[in-house]
Amino acid sequence: MSISVLVVDDHHLFRRGVIGILKTVEDIEVVGEASNGEEAIRVVKQLQPDVLIMDLCMPVMSGIEVIRHFQDLVVATRVLILTVNEEERSLYEAVKYGAQGYAIKSIDPDDLIDAIRRVASGEAVIPSNLAIKMMFEVSNLGSSAAPLIESLTSREIEVLQELGLGLSNRDIARRLYISENTVRNHVRNILDKLHMSNRVQAAAYAVREGIVQGNETL
Question: Of 17, 99, 108, 39, which Cα lies nearest the Cα of 64?
């Protein structure tokens, strides 16, 4: 099945350029576009796309405000931030409120396509140069009551260790000799048990609690 995508950016030329690239990809379908955050929320409600590609700095409503608004909506849309803003705080805020991916607008088209596929499958996409710093920051933004590792099964702990290394579902499946679908199920259970919204927060928790040493990146 194709991945449905909504592209949101206030710069018309850039937005049309991204759409033009994605229209050449067989397994990606651009179902809509918007020029500001308010339009983005309205179109997401209407079309329920798999992935929302969105800038952070937009008129009417910023990308961060859109992501925060999604917390009150029952939508399965995953968010990939595509922006020129490389400030660490923006990255922390985007991930804190539920973004699954963050990429810079200078990204290679092939890497953008790969990022969309990874985000659609539930994986995290974070620039490697900011990943570990972001992990620690996100972990400090969480609840003061640390989730109990005892709530996880031994296999879930193994998967959590791999998340802490920033590995993809495919790599985790290969290392643990299980299927990618099984990995996805374990990740879902881990997030539920640790009361976290995405795998980046789980990775941050793994690093902070010493479940894995923070010497590799996403």
Answer: 99
Cβ neighbors of 87 (< 8 A, separation 6 or more) are none
Cβ-proximal residues to 77 (8 Å cutoff; 6+ apart), any chain: 6, 44, 48, 49, 50, 51, 52, 70
Please choose, from the candidates 81, 92, 21, the residue with its C-alpha nearest in 3D space to the C-alpha of residue 52.
81
**Residue length, the chain?**
218
Q: Which two tokens stand for residue 102?
A: 């963050």
How does pLDDT run along the chain (218 residues), one tens digit per residue? 799 999 999 999 999 999 999 999 999 999 999 999 999 999 999 999 999 999 988 888 988 899 888 877 667 899 999 988 666 667 777 877 788 888 889 899 999 999 999 999 888 787 655 565 565 555 554 444 355 678 889 999 999 999 888 788 888 999 999 998 999 899 989 988 888 877 777 877 787 777 865 444 33
Given the structure tokens 């850039």, which residue do they identify?
A: 14
